[in-house]
Inverse folding.
């Protein structure tokens, strides 16, 4: 059952957690606002690309120049933070620093020149934080989390949502690029050798549990998701939840591996700073999919930095996918300074309607979660303009990473919101969304939109409802009044026709 109310955001200035992640390819700073139990809202994010992992060849030392380069990058990032009295800064370093014989010198210079103390994570800790971040956006079961960085790759196993094993492998994109890809573009023997090396390392790991999902974390996964969305013109514009199938990974590999780096920098969606190492990352994820996920990988926008921030803020894990949806709605509402009270009322009524009609329509939890998310945020587009606010709301939702929702459920929620005012989906939308949803799923989205349409009117007019004995008619009850069409709803006939057309249900108004 979906809980009725989302957590309420606290007012005023809230504590801030800034995470500095010193990786092998990039150094990132992400600052989060802690919004009560709702979780973390990103307020700013910056990155530098000092490529500390370039020192991973040879004796693996960072060397004086890389130390200076890394410390300068951290100083620049910290200088971009505005003054704040309630900020906690946490800095961690991963594979490049972890493996460097001169890491003590780097950490000393970091303290001296940037005033920052960094904790060097073990590979197992790195994997644990990645899994914790993923769990902040997905309800984990017996799944795998793969965190692909510049120097290493972490493979984490969960059982019933709990971490059971974290393994770190020296399969990072920078490391593999330097070791195997000598030419630009790389030659076939080089890419074959890289794939064989990765496959051999992965073969030593246990098989994935039956039915396990494989979530991938890191800059390479996000870059490939963005590129995939650009090339396919996907209507969903958040990388969160984007599927990377084995066929798609092979297709991208066949294109990108033959391009020189200069051309890869111009590929839509691909960050120019990642063009040098993207081929190694793509081939590595291809082997991960072959080994563990024949049905494809799922990209998570949440990872190690989110996990560190959650632990720092002492945020409890969500108890259900529905709670993840609630938390996401609160964070989105806070970002847009949009009140959620009306959305919560509509969500409660929509939940009642869903449970009444779901058996008839063959709906399950995924459709219920989509309806719940859509109900909470169906009017958020009014912050842009009240005119056609339903389409504005859908636009915001399709750019928002909503925790707890699959890619399919996100699509259903977006389209349900788009038609929650009783209008059919614009033909252009139907055409574009066929790349994500089937015709049957498009019809399901319109039915969910009809439930939102009805739920809002039941909420606004104080009406109740019940199903007829044959479950073929919805009987609306005018609370405390005579059985008449309410004056506040002059388009009752239109509502009746819409519900009949979309849901196949009659609509009566009785005392």
């Amino acid at each position: 059952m979906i809980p009725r109310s989302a957590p309420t955001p606290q007012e005023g200035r809230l504590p801030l957690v800034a995470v500095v992640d010193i990786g092998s390819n990039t150094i990132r700073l992400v600052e989060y606002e802690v919004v009560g139990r709702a979780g973390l809202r990103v307020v700013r994010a910056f990155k530098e690309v000092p490529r500390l992992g370039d020192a991973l060849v040879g004796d693996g030392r960072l060397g004086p120049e890389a130390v200076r380069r890394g410390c300068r990058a951290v100083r620049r990032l910290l200088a971009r933070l505005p003054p704040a009295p309630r900020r906690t800064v946490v800095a961690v370093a991963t594979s490049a620093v972890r493996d460097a014989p001169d890491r003590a010198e780097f950490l000393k210079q970091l303290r001296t020149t940037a005033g920052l103390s960094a904790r060097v994570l073990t590979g197992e800790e790195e994997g644990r934080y990645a899994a914790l971040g993923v769990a902040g956006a997905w309800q984990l079961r017996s799944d795998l989390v793969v965190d692909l960085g510049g120097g290493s790759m972490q493979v984490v196993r969960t059982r019933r949502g709990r971490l059971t094993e974290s393994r770190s492998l020296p399969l990072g994109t920078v490391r593999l690029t330097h070791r195997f890809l000598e030419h630009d573009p790389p030659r076939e023997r080089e890419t074959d050798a890289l794939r064989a090396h990765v496959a051999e390392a992965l073969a030593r790991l246990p098989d994935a549990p039956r039915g396990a999902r494989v979530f991938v974390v890191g800059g390479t996964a996000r870059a490939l998701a963005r590129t995939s969305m650009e090339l396919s013109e996907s209507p969903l514009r958040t990388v969160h939840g984007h599927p990377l199938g084995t066929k798609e990974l092979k297709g991208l590999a066949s294109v990108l591996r033959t391009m020189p780096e200069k051309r890869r920098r111009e590929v839509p969606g691909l960050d120019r700073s990642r063009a040098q190492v993207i081929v190694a990352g793509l081939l590595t994820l291809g082997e991960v999919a072959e080994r563990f996920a024949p049905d494809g990988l799922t990209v998570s926008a949440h990872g190690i930095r989110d996990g560190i921030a959650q632990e720092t803020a002492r945020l409890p894990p969500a108890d259900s996918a529905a709670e993840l949806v609630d938390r996401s709605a609160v964070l989105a509402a806070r970002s847009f300074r949009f009140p959620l009270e009306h959305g919560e009322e509509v969500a409660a009524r929509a939940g009642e309607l869903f449970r009444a009609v779901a058996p008839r329509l063959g709906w399950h939890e995924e459709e219920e979660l989509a309806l719940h998310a859509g109900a909470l945020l169906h009017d958020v587009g009014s912050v842009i303009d009240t005119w056609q606010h339903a389409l504005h709301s859908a636009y915001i939702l399709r750019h928002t990473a909503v925790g707890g929702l699959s890619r399919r459920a996100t699509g259903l929620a977006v389209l349900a919101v788009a038609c929650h005012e009783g209008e059919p989906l614009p033909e252009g939308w139907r055409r574009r969304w066929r790349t994500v949803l089937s015709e049957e799923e498009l019809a399901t989205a319109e039915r969910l939109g009809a439930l939102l349409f009805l739920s809002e009117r039941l909420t606004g007019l104080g009406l109740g409802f019940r199903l007829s004995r044959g479950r073929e008619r919805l009987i609306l009850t005018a609370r405390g009044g005579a059985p008449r069409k309410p004056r506040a709803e002059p388009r009752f006939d239109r509502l009746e026709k819409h519900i009949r057309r979309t849901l196949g249900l009659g609509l009566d108004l009785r005392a």
Remarks:
- Residues 439-461 form the longest helix (23 residues).
- The radius of gyration is 25 Å.
- The first strand starts at residue 16 and ends at 22.
